[in-house]
Amino acid sequence: MSALMADLLGKLVPRSYAPKRRTVLLGSAMLLALVILYGAFEFGRYEAGFRVVDSLRGALAANARIRELESEVERQREQLAAADVARRVDREGYKQVEQSLGDMQSRIARLNQDLSFYRGLVQPDSLVHVKVQQMQIVPESAGQFHLKFVLMQTGKPDNVVSGSLSIILDGLQGGKPRSLSFADVSPNRRATLAYSFRYFQDYDELVQLPKGFEPTRVGAEIHSGRDMNHGFRQAFVWKAQGMSVETEANGNESKESVDVQAETE
Question: Which end of the chain is more exposed for a tag (fewer CB within 10 A), N or C?
Answer without folding.
Answer: N
